[in-house]
Amino acid sequence: MADPAAVAAMAGDGLYNRHSGLQQANLQSALPLLEAAARAIGVGSVGPVSIVDYGASQGRNSMAPMATAIDLVRAHDAQRPVQVVHTDLPSNDFTSLFGLLDRDPASYLNGRQGVFPSAIGRSYFDAILPPGSVDLGWSSNALHWMSCNPVDVADHGWAIFSRSAQARAAVEAVLAKDWLAFLKARAVELRPGGRLICQFMGRGPDSHGFEWMAGNFWQSIVDMEGEGLLSADETLRMTAPSAGRSLDQIRAPFDAGLVPELELEHLAAIPSPDPYWDAYQRSGDAAELGRLWAAMMGAANGPNFLTRVDASRDRDALLASLVQRVATRVEADPQRSRAFILILSIRKRDLR
Question: Does the keyword Metal-binding apply (predicted)?
């Protein structure tokens, strides 16, 4: 049996690359912050530049942001060497990432000389690069994943939606611990004057957001248990290690002086786009809406749910059944997703 608290990477073999259109739409809102940060780095530093992509997954959604950052830090010196480091969990599908860099027309290596990519398989809740070595950090669609699953709940696939106040409190505690750990690690790695841009799932003022789709995913799992495809123990263990944070939770370490080296320059919570709904509005094809949502949920969340079942089970068949059930539910009740994303910009102070 797999470690019940462990966090799995996105679905491999390039599956996440093929089904992450929502994530690609989400990151667009943070690009102006990335552009401003890259321009500042380009003007305010000399010599080689180090850009780090925290939580890169298989790289599809990193290509355009990295290309933009490279060009802007080189605005005054087109020959300036740039190192791009992609980080993710050790189990991540780095093969797809490097294949994309090597062969895909969207690769940021195309038409650019003196760019040196690499990858590190370690959690970003620890420092993973040398002190003072990072000029510009970028993280999209990643920081709502927790370092571990703090609690299993029987009434939902996400403990943040459980009726249990104790379970929700356990999630909040890990969210706070993880956020502080992430910030402290980046405070070590960033150079004075370095910037960090992040975009990830947040919360709205009156709701967490994502309730509709999380509910569809969970009810599909409940249906599978009811039909004998999953045991009650397996269903209990299928509690996702993810949740959104509020604006106050993001501000808390800064307000408490816990990361004095870092300055929070920009923070906003905005409604998440829904490119699948936009396509449905044009086509009226509810089946396609269901397919797109189900494929994305299977690629992003399927591994964390199915790693909780016994290794002897046919996990591919279980995931296929789960994805089909989610698609059927969405097709029967098409809605626009109501979710929220956070975008923020952080600068490391020069305290000398």
Answer: yes
